[in-house]
Design brief:
The protein has about 230 residues and is mainly α. It folds into two domains: about 120 residues; about 110 residues, no CATH class. α1 runs antiparallel to α5, α2 packs across α3 and α3 runs antiparallel to α4. The chain starts with a helix and ends with a helix. Keywords: Membrane, Transmembrane, Transmembrane helix. This is DUF3307 domain-containing protein. Pfam families: DUF3307.
Length: about 230
């Protein structure tokens, strides 16, 4: 476990702390001919070796460094084909983590992976999944008749309300699991403060009622989910 944690720390330091923005720009422009991609890989190698502080791991770290170079290079050439630049970024990070995991547990990879899955809290995973997109869809269906009667005179980010609802439900579920019910009240209060100015300016009673019902429904679904999880 400690080997994986140190490798993960080395990755975070190398990818997010010791990689200046100008390096990233230069790599994107010059790709394989950029000198900074080689500096970047070398930094990853050195940081990992310093954190592990054991020459017995040099071969493993070298494999990680080479794989890091290949993955980063593939991302540089693949990124222009993606409309959303965040997609290749997250794919890149996922592949790095998989390599780190495989290298850290290569001696008992299969047994460790099986044990890891056996220890997963599937009830918690189900609760987390439910309060995300399924709850958003359920709320959309429940509020469908009301939403048709709401006239919006302002623009907002695409799907912003849906993602705000998902995040708030995740927070509520987390607070219930932790037994911090008072934090839910603070979350409701904070959301009310942010919404107050918009509702005041719109002077739209239907919109106010719609948002209030949506908020209470969102919190209610998360609270019910949390209670079911901690009870069973």
């Amino acid at each position: 476990m400690i080997v994986f944690v140190k490798l993960l720390l080395a990755h975070l330091i190398g990818d997010f702390i010791l990689q200046p923005s100008r390096w990233v720009v230069h790599k994107e422009a010059n790709k394989i001919t950029s000198k900074y991609i080689y500096f970047h890989v070398l930094i990853h190698f050195l940081v990992a070796m310093v954190l592990l502080w054991d020459l017995d791991y040099i071969q493993m770290v070298a494999i990680i460094a080479v794989s890091h170079y290949i993955i980063d290079l593939a991302k540089l050439y693949a990124t222009p084909y993606f409309k959303l630049k965040s997609i290749p970024f997250f794919i890149d990070q996922l592949l790095h983590l998989i390599i780190l995991y495989i290298c850290a547990y290569y001696t008992d990879f299969w047994s460790h992976t099986v044990t890891l899955f056996q220890r997963l809290d599937w009830g918690l995973i189900t609760a987390l999944v439910f309060v995300s997109f399924p709850s958003a869809i359920i709320m959309g269906k429940l509020l469908e008749a009301m939403s048709d009667k709401i006239e919006l005179d302002h623009k907002s980010l695409p799907n912003a309300g849906k993602y705000i609802g998902i995040i708030e439900r995740l927070f509520v579920l987390m607070f219930i699991i932790m037994g911090r019910w008072e934090a839910i009240g603070l979350l409701i209060g904070a959301k009310s403060v942010f919404r107050f100015n918009d509702l005041k300016e719109s002077n739209n009673r239907k919109l106010t009622e719609y948002i209030l019902i949506g908020t209470l429904l969102s919190f209610g679904l998360a609270i019910i989910t949390g209670i079911i999880y901690v009870t069973f």
